[in-house]
Each structure stands twice: as structure tokens, then as C-alpha cells.
Prior knowledge:
- The chain is an alpha+beta fold.
- The protein has one domain.
- It contains six helices and five strands; from the N terminus they run H-H-E-E-E-H-E-H-E-H-H.
- A five-stranded antiparallel β-sheet has the order 1-2-3-5-4.
Amino acid sequence: MDANRPRYRYYRGQFEAFVEELIDAISAFDPSVAGLTAKDCTYRMNRDIRFSADKSPYKTHFSAFIAPRGKNSGLAGYYLHLEPEMEGSSMIGHSIVAAGQVCIPPVILRSIREEIIDHGDEMLAHIASAEGFSLDKENALKRTPVGFDSGTPYDELLKLKDHCLARDLTDEELFRPDFKELLLALFRSTKPYLDQLNRAIQYGYEEMM
């Protein structure tokens, strides 16, 4: 890393400048992120290795989470993850765009599930209108959570522990001259889903106060 630090700093600077452009452009259709800076939305290069079998000290990707009040607000937002294939390595690059929130506290998760019970058709419609996105079900429960009836049209939503829509980015898309415009169109299509999620999240936090 020390040998490549100047190169890393150059590309990080390029990424942060791009994130600033994204924030400004997203705020045109989602004013809740207006005024954020790249620092509010990007992550440090060091990995948290405390509970991981992989002790590699540094990340191999750049990412940004553009959410109201920044990446640590607890609210849902727009996520960009750019990870190239590593030269001379078996690691395969994985670049995605996503919208939502992960690692949701139990009290907030219950508020989201109550939102699903009350307005599940609305959420399903928002998911369907998100261009090319699908629900991330990696950490979903096997059964409907305790306290919620099974056999409803919303079972798959109720089982989620992370509420996130994700879409892979192809190499062709990454190198398009209008890449930023592509991202903005994708993120714009997820805004109704995020608005509904954040309505439930904010209600949950208010209930905790």
C-alpha cells in the first residue's frame, strides 16, 4: 500500500469529486441529500477485521452511501460500489448500485414491517418500478417473523432483515460516456421506495424517543 499510496490518493480524489457531482445532481430530485459532502458519504480504506476471517487490511473498492444527513444517519439512501477485477489475483470485480438500508436495529425493523402490513401493495409497486433492481435477500429469515401472520402477499418482505434493492453494473455501463446520467436515472427510479422506507424508519426513531 505504501508504494501505491500516491496512486490511491489520486483515484480517491477522482471518486470523491464524482460523488460530489452525484450529490448535487441527486438533490435536484431528492432535496433530503442537499448540502452533503463526499466526506459525509464515503468510507475509509481500512477494513474492520475484528470479526472477520479475512485479515486483509484494506478494501479493494470505492463506495459511497448518499443518505439524508449522511452515511451514519440510520436512514435509507443511495449506494454506489465500484470494485475492479484485481490484476494478478483470483478476485473478481463487483460493481453495483443499491438503494435502502442494512444493519437495521430491531425496533426500526419492526416499524418497517408494520409499514409493510399497512402499505405492502405500495411498497411492492415501488420495488417493481425500480429499473432493473431486485431485493437483496441474502440475510432474510427462513420464516415469517414472530408476531406477523404468514400466508400474506408480503411474506417475502416481512422476512427481510436488510431492506435494500440492488443492481449489478456491467463493464459496458461503467465505461459509458453518460455513466453519471445512467446512475441518476437508476437512483431516481428507487426514490419512491426510499421515501416509504424512510417514512417507516423515522417513525420508528420517533417512537424510541
